[in-house]
Amino acid sequence: MGVALPRWVWIGAGLLACVAGMVNVVGYLGFEHQAITHLTGTTTLLGEAVAKRDLRAISHLAGVALAFMAGAALSGMLIQDSTLKLGRRYGVALVLESLLLFAAIPLFRHGQLAGALLAAMACGLQNAMATTYSGAVIRTSHLSGMFTDLGIGIGHALRGLPLQKRRLMLCGLIIAGFFTGAVLGALLFMHFGYRALAVPAAITGSIGLGYAVYRHAQVRRGGAESA
């Protein structure tokens, strides 16, 4: 990533990765020990369920995958562009994510699949929202790409090739954020159960409202300068 990202992008990426880590660990520790924020494991288990003709597992796992995709589709409808740019409706998307996570809590507590579906939809919405900037991919809900990019960077360093330092720093930030969220989410789940999801829900809601305020201030500043 050979671009200078705005400070708000770095802060948002770290916080959203932390949110994803919290949501994922709550799903893993709670509802059928199923990951929520990424679909590689879910698809693998779905393949196993199809092989075993386990209709219940098939419906659950396919439902989670489809809910994640539905969240991504909702983000596509809201943002309508793959270029990161101030003025997009990121605040609306984040507030919707917050509402989905809050709504998932009572459903999870009653053992209903709908809780996992809403949480997966929230994660799909978040992951699609934080998508691309100048051709470089930013993902906050899973880490395979981040570890891959770090590995490539190490390989380049060993060969004496130039490094995309800002890209590697962003990868490290997202990995650290996700890991921190996993630790915090596990601690919260041990004490509060599914109510732990209120924390990532509150974080996304706060970020969404904060972004709306920031955007409004930038628009007013631009209007004042042009007057």
List the helices and strands and how they pair.
Layout: H1 7-29, H2 40-52, H3 55-79, H4 90-109, H5 113-129, E1 132-133, E2 136-137, H6 144-158, H7 165-192, H8 198-226
Antiparallel strand pairs: 1-2
Helix pairs in contact: 1-5, 1-7, 1-8, 2-3, 3-5, 4-5, 4-8, 6-7
Helix run count: 8
Under the CATH scheme, the architecture is Up-down Bundle
Global Rg = 18 Å
Please bin the fraction of helical residues. over 70%
Order of helices and strands: HHHHHEEHHH
The average pLDDT score comes to 85
Rounded to the nearest angstrom, the distance between the terminal CA atoms is 36 Å
Features:
about 230 residues; mainly alpha; Growth Hormone, Chain: A; two-stranded antiparallel sheet; about 75% helix; globular; DUF1275 domain-containing protein; membrane; DUF1275; transmembrane helix; transmembrane
Outline the structure in words:
By secondary structure, this protein is mainly alpha-helical. The chain is built from 8 helices and 2 strands, in the order H-H-H-H-H-E-E-H-H-H. The chain has helices spanning 7-29, 40-52, 55-79, 90-109, 113-129, 144-158, 165-192, 198-226, and strands at 132-133, 136-137. Strand 1 (132-133) and strand 2 form a beta hairpin. Mean pLDDT is 85; it is low at 132-136. InterPro entries: DUF1275. Pfam families: DUF1275. The chain crosses the membrane at residues 7-31, 57-78, 90-108, 114-138, 168-190, 196-214.
